[in-house]
Design a protein that fits this description.
homodimer; alpha/beta; TIM Barrel; 2 domains; six-stranded parallel sheet; 19 strands; elongated
């Protein structure tokens, strides 16, 4: 799939053909926004713009796509010709990746002749929705971990390979230290982590033999997985091996009663002189368990975070829509119950007071307000007009944003933030 | 990403290198199974084998992958040479796509030299986990809809483009009539559906003008979207337009109080002589709403199913693991609490009584039992030894299976099925 033209719902193409047939090719603005945050999200983290821009570049209709569409016997030759020549030559306005956003704020705005903007609908929503969903989950985990190390272990339970790769990227933006995902490591130079699975321990006749073999192969990354048989016995073996000169930098617990086991393991390691050996916990970890354990003072140095993170299990989707807000200079609004929209291209001004975010004002683009404008023009007439930041820079953007986040939004529930729409 | 070698968690490669260094390259069997079904799943539908086989074919380490791994400064030249030459030459046993499965049943078993089987772990779990998750959600929707038409509208809220494409495939296996997803339509010849969005209606000065324009462009697929402004007024306009000879095959409701609106719209259409015009409902639909509406007799002919389906929102992941069960002819088990596994390569016999599934027996491969054996050898020495069925055939397999499904497993909760492990 080199060309992405068919990453489209059929109705975008039926609409586009009908627009062209009915002379409706005036300038339109579509806005991508979240109507309402899920109950367990106090804020969202913008993510996915870089991937979207790559996707738009590849949004083409080559012979493969045209021949398929022709086979449907719905589309006119004129329209298929239009698709064949399709290149996005409009404008894209975005709130940059790594910025914090709220309901009714335009993450992406696409300004182009109506059919040109319409047919990007599925691509724009799909890319930004997923990466924003998972970055917004990851940052909750980051805030709960209070500075402890976090590693994405979720690749296997992501919704597809692509989801795993982009989730690793999003988690790094959101403050994770690294990932187990090698493809993500290779693409964005994200630090990669990983040691062994239970199967490795089971291959050797005795557990200590497995530990010894691994330390021999990887003396600088010698982390022992303790819970294959009996966790506390394995901790005692770790101490014995260290006394014999076997290198050990950490131990991992992946199952069982974590608060009890982590405390006992810490005690065993410490009494064996292994105060520097880190305890890493994985297996069903999310921001709720992390917060609980940290609040109880459980001695854990690092978390491997998998399934619940990578599926954003407590909020696996957002109420995100790509809505027409302006056509030919005129405002467009939908008035049906519960789905009202706000017209016109928009800017968001973030008002800061005493270093803290106080409120956001969503105003018509071009109007001014006090505060920090979030929306930037990224693509002008089809051409990139901003340098795209590195992943490290995106992460720094978010870390900076988090410093100004009001305390009640940092917690796991219950925060409210004022967004005024003018 | 032509080669998929880096679709791997780092620990698989560290383990593999250590296995080779320690002479642990004997024949191993890994089993992919679900430990426990989610509370709201009575059974699962196997899905993803075809994609997995394509993935294994592409699981290679070219210069790009090798250079990245070399840059990590962890791996020996010997091991990088092993990866460079890697081709899967082992055996794969699978329960075919479209079959119904339960906890502790081996969906996939990989038999190969230990390092060769180990490094496929993430790929095997990722592909089968996602497609099985979403097929298992889709079949619940299918069973709830009682024969009414179902179309996948979820592409935009899937976790990435790939997730949307494979979910469309899974939904078709699970009995949906089609998808809005053009890429899935093109790949597997799945019927595609779609008409217009609210933005289309809003572009025209008057709603009836929009209806008229669409019917002109697509007279054979002329479905009117009623809920942009006032749903019942739009239904009345539909009747008026039909009287003027404008073609109309269906109407769609996407928001509001669906039971009330569907009944009123049906009444308006019928009293205008439009008894054949179908009512299609979309917007937040899942098996729970479908069942409720059908139980109440709400007149709906077809459902467009999106977000909650494609994210499997009520069970976005399965407790699925890829576990070593046999090495060098010896059984392998993990005994840590809550994660016990069963040793050896396995076969599953499904015992049928009076046309209904009665119980499954999971036995050691090679042992016999009465019943229908589910596990088939698909790859032998790296070569495909079965014809892969078409998507239509997979769908027929599942429809056949569903006929034998006990009544209490067909519902939305509370079914139990006996799986005996010998």
């Amino acid at each position: 799939m080199e060309a992405l033209g068919l990453c489209t719902d059929l109705y975008e193409l039926t609409m586009a053909q009908s627009y062209l047939e009915n002379g409706k090719a005036g300038r339109a603005v579509f806005s991508l926004f979240v109507r309402k945050l899920p109950p367990n999200r106090n804020f969202l983290v913008c993510c996915g713009l870089e991937t979207l821009l790559e996707g738009i570049e590849r949004f083409r209709f080559t012979d493969r796509e045209i021949n398929y569409l022709k086979s449907l016997q719905r589309f006119s030759d004129d329209f298929l010709g239009y698709l064949k020549d399709y290149r996005f030559e409009g404008n894209i306005y975005a709130i940059p990746e790594g910025r914090i956003v709220f309901q009714n704020e335009p993450l992406i705005q696409v300004e182009a002749p109506l059919p040109d903007a319409q047919i990007l609908e599925t691509l724009v929503i799909n890319v930004i929705h997923f990466q924003t969903t998972v970055a917004s989950k990851a940052v909750r985990i980051y805030l709960s971990a209070g500075g402890r190390s976090l590693v994405d272990f979720g690749f296997r339970r992501a919704h597809g390979l692509e989801a795993g790769i982009y989730a690793a990227r999003a988690s790094y933006v959101a403050g994770f230290d690294g990932t187990s995902n090698l493809e993500a490591g290779a693409r964005w130079n994200i630090p990669v982590f990983g040691t062994v699975a239970h199967s490795y321990i089971m291959i050797f006749d005795r557990e200590e033999e497995a530990f010894r073999a691994f330390a021999r192969s990887f003396p600088h990354n010698s982390v022992f997985l303790l819970d294959t048989y009996d966790t506390l016995e394995a901790a005692k073996k770790t101490v014995q091996l260290a006394r014999q000169g076997v290198p050990v930098v950490g131990v991992r617990l992946d199952s069982g009663d974590i608060p009890y086991l982590a405390r006992e393991v810490r005690r065993i390691l410490n009494s064996g002189g292994l105060r520097d050996v880190k305890i890493i916990v994985s297996g069903g970890v999310d921001e709720y368990t992390i917060k609980e354990w940290i609040d109880e003072g459980v001695p854990i140095d690092a978390f491997g975070v998998g399934t619940k993170f990578i599926t954003s299990a407590d909020a696996p989707y957002l109420d995100m829509a790509y809505k027409l807000v302006e056509y030919d200079g005129e405002p467009k609004v939908k008035t049906s119950p519960g789905k009202a929209t706000f017209p016109f291209k928009r800017q968001v001004f973030r008002q800061i007071s005493g270093g803290q975010m106080e409120r956001d004002a969503v105003v018509r683009y071009g109007d001014t307000q006090e505060g920090d404008p979030l929306v930037e023009k990224i693509i002008d007439g089809g051409r990139l007009v901003r340098d795209l930041p590195s992943l490290k820079e995106l992460r720094d953007t978010l870390m900076q944003e988090l410093k100004g986040l009001p305390p009640d939004l940092r917690g796991l529930s219950g925060g409210e933030y004022e967004v005024i729409i003018k």
